[in-house]
Amino acid sequence: MILQSPARLFWTTAAVAAAAAVAIGSAAAPAETGSAAAKRITPSGVDGVKLGKTYKKLRQQGLVKRIRRGCELGGPNTRSAGLRAPLEGQVNFTRSTPRKVTDITVRGGARARGVGIGAKIPAIKAAFPKAKVDHSTDSVFQLTLVRIPKNGGGRLTFGVSTKTKRTTLIGIPVIAFCE
After folding, report:
1. Domain spans of the chain, in order of start
2. Are strands 39-42 and 110-112 parallel, antiparallel or unpaired?
3. pLDDT tens-digit profile of 26-67?
4. Comparing 14 with 115, which gets the higher pLDDT?
5. d(Cα 5, Cα 7) in Å, to the nearest integer?
6. CA distance 89 to 110
7. Are 165 and 171 in contact (CB under 8 A)?
8. What is the DSSP code (8-state) at residue 157?
9. Rounded CA gap, 49 and 167, in Å?
10. Which of 115, 117, 134 is nearest to 125 (CA)?
11. Within 10 Å of residue 143's Cβ, how many Cβ atoms?
């Protein structure tokens, strides 16, 4: 049997304890899922895509896809671009240059005050007490609009499907219809 000095025994014990702490800490840590947390929707935009920003700046930052022709109903020279992952949706731009963001439609990857795609009208009203429910588009677009006024948390519009009763679109400040 080999006897160790008290100092050597202390450092060996400390090293074993540190290794055990690291092993326990990594086992107790939550698993990394690889998916990013939902981005935050505000009345001014979502995840760096802000109302009034130019297409050139958004493209340089890697926030939008290539610009393409927009809705024909918007008039001549309309343009829009898709949002890049983790967001889903599109951005509409002004008809003149420089192209600036006029409205944003989100289909996934973001939440406003914890309310995101799939939420029901009571959840929207709980997060935004001044929300106004508008059924005027129910028959044409099969979408109930829940509008948030400026004094109720910002100009936002939630599109709730009349079939599933769940949010399918979030518009900043409005949902642009093109059908």
Report:
1. 40-172
2. parallel
3. 343 333 333 457 789 999 999 889 999 999 999 999 999 999
4. 115
5. 6
6. 10
7. no
8. E
9. 21
10. 115
11. 21
Tokens of 67: 């610009």
Q: Using an 8 Å Cβ cutoff, are 174 and 121 in contact? A: no
The pLDDT, as a whole number, for residue 73 is 84
The per-residue b/e assignment along 38-47, b for 16 or more CB within 10 angstroms, e otherwise, is bbebbebbbb
Provide the CB-side half-sphere exposure for 108 (13 A, CA). Answer: 5
Interatomic CA distance for residues 156 and 43, integer angstroms: 6
Identify the residue whose tokens are 């080999």: 2
Q: Strand locations in 7-78, DSSP E?
A: 39-42, 45-46, 49-50, 68-69
Topology of domain 40-172, CATH: Pathogenesis-related Protein p14a (3.40.33)
Residue type at 152 in one-letter notation = G
